[in-house]
Write a structure and sequence with these properties.
Helix content: 40-55%
Radius of gyration: 17 Å
Number of domains: 1
Number of strands: 5
Largest sheet: 5 strands, antiparallel
Shape: globular
Strand order of the largest sheet: 1-2-3-4-5
InterPro entries: YdhG-like
Protein name: DUF1801 domain-containing protein
Order of helices and strands: HHEEEEEH
Distance between the termini: 48 Å
Length: about 150
């Protein structure tokens, strides 16, 4: 029971840190990060907020779904397993050359296709749950018959 309480406390403190980041930005990037965060929660009410890697908001469900990084001219959502997700709306516009991750760079004034983003979040959750529930392949023993 103690570990569940610890996880809850960590999630609550991460949420407070994310709130702080949004306030500290105080411009369109804070507004966009807040909007993206709300969409993530709408798409997956069970999402867990985390704060990692020296101040990066992370959203997880059975593993990392995406990060919400802010830079001088963009808000970047990086999907941990984005290369494995179908993106019929073409939201991914960054980190396209990688084998695993994909990102969405949102610039000031851009409109986000909210329904498509929520679909991507739900697909990322489904992929994480599928991967988590898949039986692990058995490794061959290091000993040789002989």
């Amino acid at each position: 029971m103690e570990s569940k309480t610890k996880k809850t406390e960590l999630a609550e403190s991460a949420s407070v840190l994310i709130d702080g980041r949004i306030q500290e930005l105080g411009d369109w990037r804070g507004e966009m990060l807040a909007r993206v965060r709300a969409l993530i929660h709408e798409a997956d009410p069970e999402v867990v907020e985390e704060w990692k890697w020296m101040g990066t908001p992370i959203w997880s469900h059975a593993g990392i779904l995406c990060t919400g990084e802010t830079y001088k001219s963009i808000v970047k959502m990086t999907f941990a397993k984005g290369a494995a997700l179908k993106d019929p709306a073409g939201l991914f516009n960054s980190s396209l050359e990688g084998n695993v991750r994909r990102a969405i760079d949102i610039h000031e004034g851009e409109k986000v296709d909210e329904d498509a983003l929520k679909d991507l979040i739900r697909a990322a959750v489904a992929l994480n749950l599928e991967t988590k529930n898949r039986p692990k392949p058995r490794r061959a023993s290091g000993k040789r018959a002989g």
